[in-house]
Amino acid sequence: MVPGSSVATPERILQVIDVVAAQTRHPVAIVVSAFGGVTDSLIAVGQKASQGDGTYVQDLAQIKERHFSIAHALIPSATLPPIDAHLEKEFKELTDALQGIALIKELTKRSLDLLMSFGERLSAYIIAAAMQVKVKNAVFVDARTLIVTDRHFGAAHVNYEQTYARIAGALGENQSTPIITGFIASSTNGETTTLGRGGSDFTAAIIGAALNAEEIEIWTDVSGVMTADPRKVKDAFPIARMTYKEAMEMSHFGAKVIHPPTIAPALQRNIPIRIKNTFTPDAEGTLITSESCDHMHPISGLTSIDQVSLFRVEGAGILGVYGMASRLFGALARKEISIILISQGSSEHSICFAIAPQSSDYAVEIIEEEFALEMQAGLIDEITVDKEVSIIAVVGENMCRIPGIAGKLFGALGTNGINIITIAQGSSE
Ligand code: ASP
Ligand code: MG
To answer: Which terminus in the chain has less CB density within 10 A, N or C?
Structure first.
């Protein structure tokens, strides 16, 4: 799978094509993202159109110009006419969709999914055409014909049974090299859906799992999962091997290299995930498998999320009353608020959890509504929300065999005057 940053310019796309052309030992299926920055631009154009800002037309023209110029830089002119015609047709459909949005002045999640889908539809089509110069059997494949989801627009849920069957049917025995759109799918009634931002990795994992691939590779612009964010920690280095569990923890707590849901299909079919750098294709990268290898380091990596909202729900009414935590988290779950971390004091007097700051006002409303009676009766106090909190995660399966790591960690933070508000440690340690 090739993310947007690796296909932002013609030069970078050529590097990707070389990587694919060099891969002659095994058949490959390739999943690509939209060209770098295009998904964001499409969202912005949609928002402008829905707000009645007519300058969206110029922005759209720029997006169109960028795609045509990349296509013309990469595809030999003799083969261009049908390609141009296809791109024109796609842009006509995109223009019509935007006109509709501008007319009704409304951008629904459903129409946003349709808008965003053009990013991958265009990039995969152009890359497939460019790839044919060196890889003769490259063909464009629109994943909307393969991946079936529900109608949860914006981050749809995959129907694995139907999806795996379709992929195996379409690509299983195929001798070609498919260039597949990442991120996009379709509902059972044929509407365009998406798998959530950053979802092209997930597409690659789904395709890899369906085909029982030997390996799922993610070709990005860093040399694997790093021990920490290199912009924050100067001597961070790539982690050679890690387990699925470690990768899940790291991506959940902020490591940007892999989109968290990616790991599930790979883990289920026990397919290794390898993260490689298109700039330095010979570098090892990171290999993610089920085996915990004997690391030299008990800690695999550190990640952080700079801003989260930390909630504390407290009161005598929580102590020893069963069902309180279930009601609290149930109410938040029904409104699709995802919880990043939970910690509860052993006195059970308070429950503490973290969520993304954008949802914090809404979450307060939900909790106040759920516990209106308890709050009136003074059984639950005011809800405390701290919006300026960061989470640091220290991840490593080998920690569990080594005492003293937590002590060292807290010691280091303490000596540097950093106050710890709450901690959560899974029983897997
Ligand atoms: N193009 C989509 C996004 O920007 C999917 C991806 O890049 O993985 O979110
Ligand atoms: Mg992207």
So the answer is: C
Q: Which atom of ligand 1 is nearest to the CA of 203?
A: 8
**What is the rounded CA–CA span in Å between residue 68 and residue 413?**
52
Q: What is the SS3 assignment for 190?
A: coil
CA gap 410, 405 in Å, rounded: 9
- Number of other residues whose CB lies within 10 A of the CB of residue 176: 14
Q: Quick check: CB of 182 below 6 Å from ligand 1?
A: yes
Nearest to 243 by CA among 197, 181, 286: 286
Mutate to test the pocket of ligand 1, among 197, 202, 257 (most ligand atoms within 8 A of CB): 197
Q: What is the pLDDT of residues 178-215, one digit of tens each?
A: 999 999 999 999 999 999 999 999 999 999 999 999 99
| Phi, psi of 126, deg, nearest 5 | -65, -40
Nearest CA to ligand 1 atom 6: 198
CB 340 within 8 A of CB 356: yes
How many residues in total does the chain contain?
429
Residue written as token pair 């968290």: 260
Q: Any idea which residue has 């009704």 for tokens?
A: 104
Report CA 141 to chain centroid distance, whole Å: 21
Buried b or exposed e, range 287-316, using 16+ CB within 10 angstroms: bbbeebeebeeebbbbbbbeebbbbbbbbe
DSSP code at position 282:
T
Determine the Cα–Cα distance for residues 189 and 207; give it in Å rounded to an integer.
21
User: Which one-letter DSSP state was computed for residue 380?
Assistant: S
Mind listing the pLDDT tens digit for each residue in 212-232? 999 999 998 888 888 888 888
On whether the CB atoms of residues 309 and 385 are closer than 8 A, the answer is yes
